[in-house]
Design brief:
Layout: H1 11-18, H2 21-48, H3 55-75, H4 79-103, E1 114-116, E2 119-121, H5 124-144, H6 150-167, H7 171-187, H8 192-212, H9 214-224, H10 232-244, H11 268-300, H12 305-329, H13 348-363
Antiparallel strand pairs: 1-2
Helix pairs in contact: 2-3, 2-11, 3-13, 4-5, 5-6, 5-7, 5-12, 5-13, 6-7, 7-8, 7-12, 8-9, 10-11, 11-12, 12-13
Length: about 375
């Protein structure tokens, strides 16, 4: 039996004493909530499509195992290994994204998935965190090494990613990647020229998507004018919040899960609010908020620019995805099929979240000298 004393120099013991245990605990809490809500939301969905009642529950619990293994395994890495993993992960996942355009099945007019045996994989879920880490590396190197074209490389990577997302098409993921990339670029000290240029490109891109993509225009139109189209799912989600009240209708007593096609994925937050009330919703929001604020606090203490940019970018990816999902549920933004991290049902997306948060935990681990600036004012990279 391994004793995790501070004098123990094993890799596991070192990890235990350096990892952010509060963030790790919060992530396990989200998984626990996801398991409970899978029991609440998924049986009705499974029976509606003629599957065994606990089909999605068993699959959710099954995917928790590799997700935790990936998260813990990646969090054991050092900073240099995180960068190498991100580079390898990006090359593999980006190649798979290209394959989706060729051999990926069409689902609701989009080619985003690859069927590998019994497992459906969405490569973009793995590209996002890998890209964020690589972009952070490039921005940090651009500041550390005068003349290094880090900003240009980061912009090239961004163009590659959003180009494929636009062709799939996956406008929601495109917007999410753009927001996170913009946040890292802002942290890296972009000039007003870049702000104006990128802002103009973003506006042109949004207008082009609205003009050229009918499903994007339809969602925006229905959000601005509910009478212009079908708003059934949003209406039922809002009904769930109204009927749930402060303390909810009680476990198993919700109605929205019986009539919403995506009750176990996109609208699981509404199921939680109906059965467990506003209190449950506030608890979920608080846990996500805690992970974000805790990570930002630890990143601010770092002297390594790559660690700062990477940790902030990864937690922004995590937090913005949660914010988008919950905002759609309460009709604050146009509808977008985006899952609630660690709570919504998912297979490859769940494992990708483990990969994302594993890199986050690896970057925010306490390391000897990580909070001390050397005499020359520049911190050497691990």
């Amino acid at each position: 039996m391994i004793r995790l004393a501070r004098t123990n120099r094993s890799q596991i013991a070192e990890w235990w004493w350096t990892v952010d245990k509060w963030t790790l605990f919060a992530l396990f809490c989200l998984m626990l909530i996801g398991g409970v809500l899978a029991l609440a939301a998924s049986p009705a969905v499974a029976m509606r499509i003629h599957l065994p009642p606990f089909h999605f529950v068993y699959r959710q619990l099954f995917f928790f195992v590799p997700t935790i293994a990936v998260m813990i395994g990646v969090s054991l890495l050092n900073v240099r290994q995180v960068r190498r993993l991100a580079a390898a992960g990006f090359l593999i996942a980006f190649g798979l994204m290209l394959l989706t355009l060729v051999i990926g099945p069409e689902v609701k007019g989009a080619h985003r998935w690859l069927q590998i045996g019994p497992l459906a994989i969405q490569p973009s879920e793995f590209v996002k965190p890998s890209f964020i880490v690589l972009a952070s590396w490039m921005f940090a190197e651009a500041q550390r090494t005068p003349g290094f074209p880090g900003t240009i490389i980061a912009l090239a990577l961004y163009t590659m990613v959003v180009g494929i997302l636009a062709m799939q098409p996956d406008f929601g993921q495109l917007m999410l990647v753009t927001m996170v990339f913009g946040a890292i670029f802002f942290m890296a000290g972009l000039s007003w020229r870049w702000i104006v240029s990128l802002g103009t490109v973003a506006i042109i891109g949004a207008l082009a998507a609205y003009t050229l993509m009918p499903h994007v225009a339809s969602r925006v139109d229905r959000f601005l004018n509910p009478d212009s189209g079908d708003t059934y799912q949003i209406d039922r989600a809002l009904d769930a919040f109204h009927t749930g009240g402060f303390f909810g209708r009680g476990p198993g007593e919700g109605e929205v899960k019986r009539i919403l096609p995506d009750a176990h994925t996109d609208f699981i937050f509404a199921v939680a609010a109906e059965e467990y009330g506003v209190v449950a919703g506030l608890i979920i929001i608080s846990i996500f908020g805690f992970v974000v604020m805790r990570t930002l606090s630890r990143a601010m203490e770092e002297q390594d620019l790559f660690v700062q940019f990477g940790a902030c970018g990864l937690v922004a990816l995590f937090g913005l995805q949660a914010l988008i999902n919950m905002s759609v549920n309460v009709d604050l933004i146009p509808a977008k099929g985006m899952t609630l991290p660690f709570i919504s049902y998912g297979g490859s997306s769940m494992i990708a979240l483990g990969y994302t948060m594993g890199m986050l935990l690896a970057l925010t681990r306490r390391r000897a000298g990580s909070h001390v600036t050397p005499p020359n004012g520049k911190r050497a990279y691990a």
